[in-house]
Amino acid sequence: MMDDFVSGALQVTASDPGDVKVMRYQWTGRSNDRQPGKLLAPFFSRVLADAQERKVGVEMHFERLEHFNSSTITAFIQLIQDARQKAVSLTFVYNQSLKWQRLSFDALRVFVKGDGLLDLKAV
């Protein structure tokens, strides 16, 4: 069961891409919380458990996200590590024309391994 997530100005909406191999989430608004991991961790945990049970990958779309702070990157790193432990493939899709997104997601490239479990797509 795909859940949405809302916290303050941040909204993560589950969408059905019509592809049985992936669960898609669209991020909008702003992630400004000082400890976003506390809020996002339970959501990420449910997403990964659902993906593992359904044997599908997870796509997180950030193209329409206005901003996230550096603390949010820490939550993404934890998500990447948890997804890898559960062997759930994870794709982050971002807008490379937004400098802050390009810089943030380029910094996450160090977590891309040859296992195919993390993909960073610039659009």
Describe this structure in words.
With 123 residues, this protein is of the alpha/beta class. It has a single domain, classed as STAS domain (Transcription Regulator spoIIAA, 2-Layer Sandwich), CATH 3.30.750. The protein is 36% helix and 31% strand. It is built from 3 helices and 7 strands; from the N terminus they run βββαββαβαβ. Strands 1, 2, 3, 4, 5, 6 and 7 form a 7-stranded mixed beta sheet that branches. Helix 1 (36-54) runs parallel beside helix 2 (70-85). It is globular. 23% of the residues are buried. The model has no long low-confidence stretch (mean pLDDT 94).
**Terminal CA distance:** 28 Å
User: Do you know the CATH architecture?
Assistant: 2-Layer Sandwich
Total individual domains: 1
The CATH superfamily is: STAS domain
Element layout with pairings:
Blueprint: E1 5-7, E2 10-15, E3 22-31, H1 36-54, E4 57-61, E5 65-68, H2 70-85, E6 90-94, H3 99-107, E7 118-122
Helix pairs in contact: 1-2
